[in-house]
Design brief:
alpha+beta; 2 helices; rod-shaped; 4-stranded antiparallel β-sheet; 136 residues; 35% strand; Immunoglobulin-like; 2 domains
């Protein structure tokens, strides 16, 4: 066997040694992979509205009304959120909805936000939907 081994060129001997080492190491990796566990991770939304989150407001042009909503945080960390307002259909005469740009909802707590709604001087009669969303 020694005669065959030493009869091989040096490059071939080093290749054979490398293949054997890789085979042994690969068997160790395979054994490790065969002994793994599976973890299922679910990420939940920590923010929610408290109580009623659907309101009906009646305004005449140039009138203003305020409404309060409470946001809860189920997480153990504070969350800074931006409130995003969408109005549909967008009235041509103007309907302004003002909310704070940035709100910090405390860990495991709640914060109350005041929403101000003002109908413009030329606001047309009709029904409009205002949606408030979280951008965190």
């Amino acid at each position: 066997m020694k005669k065959i081994w030493y009869g091989l060129p040096t490059v071939v001997r080093w290749l054979l040694v490398t293949v054997v080492i890789m085979a042994v190491a690969g068997a160790g990796v395979y054994a490790y992979i065969a002994l793994t566990a599976t973890v299922e991770i679910v990420i939940e939304e920590p923010l929610s509205f408290v109580g009623e989150n659907v309101f009906e407001v009646t305004l005449y042009p140039q009138e203003t009304v305020t409404q309060e909503v409470t946001i809860a945080n189920a997480s153990s960390l504070d969350f800074d959120v931006n409130l995003v307002i969408t109005i549909s259909p967008e009235p041509e005469g103007g309907l302004n909805v003002d909310v704070p740009k940035k709100v910090t909802v405390p860990a495991n707590g709640e914060v109350t936000v005041t929403i101000t709604i003002k109908a413009g001087k030329s606001a047309p009669a009709g029904a409009f939907a205002v949606e408030i969303g979280f951008d965190r």
